[in-house]
Structure formats: C-alpha cells, structure tokens
From TrEMBL:
<keyword id="KW-0812">Transmembrane</keyword>
<protein>
    <submittedName>
        <fullName>Uncharacterized protein</fullName>
    </submittedName>
</protein>
<dbReference type="InterPro" id="IPR058725">
    <property type="entry name" value="YczF"/>
</dbReference>
<keyword id="KW-1133">Transmembrane helix</keyword>
<dbReference type="Pfam" id="PF26310">
    <property type="entry name" value="YczF"/>
</dbReference>
<keyword id="KW-0472">Membrane</keyword>
<feature type="transmembrane region" description="Helical">
    <location>
        <begin position="6"/>
        <end position="27"/>
    </location>
</feature>
<feature type="transmembrane region" description="Helical">
    <location>
        <begin position="48"/>
        <end position="67"/>
    </location>
</feature>
Length: 81
C-alpha cells in the first residue's frame, strides 16, 4: 500500500508542477489541463492495454501484499494469547 500511495502522491505533485509551470507561462487552465493529459489522448489501443496492465498489476500487488501481511499478523496473534 505504501508503494501505491507514494506513486499517487508523486503523480499528483508532478501534475501540479506541470500545471503551475504552464500557468506561469501564461496559458489558461483549460490549455494547461489539456497539455497535462495530452499523452493519454494520442495513445493507441495496444498502448492503453499495456498501461492498464501496468497500473492494474501495481494496484493488485499492493492490495495482495497488504492482505497477506494482515493475515500473518492475525494468525500470529491467535497463536500467542
């Protein structure tokens, strides 16, 4: 879960940084948002599948690891009263 949180935080900071630079250059908010999300508009279907797979695997692995660690803690606490 830490990896997922850090990834989302970094993405938010980088998008904010990009928007801030665009605003300082004199662009409107709408133009800044379009330029921030432009890479996703020009992607083709195979590229969308690959990025979806990478994001899905990141989320799935984080959630799986979280539940696995939680089950280990629960099992250890049941063994030692």
């Amino acid at each position: 879960m830490k990896i997922l949180g850090i990834s989302i935080l970094m993405m938010g900071i980088l998008i904010g940084f990009s928007l801030g630079i665009d605003l300082l250059l004199g662009f409107e908010i709408r133009t800044s948002l379009k330029s921030a999300f432009n890479p996703f508009r020009v992607m083709e279907v195979p590229e969308f599948v690959i990025i979806f797979f990478l994001v899905f695997s990141l989320v799935f692995e984080s959630v799986r690891s979280f539940y696995q660690k939680r089950n280990v803690k629960t099992n250890n606490s049941e063994k030692h009263p």
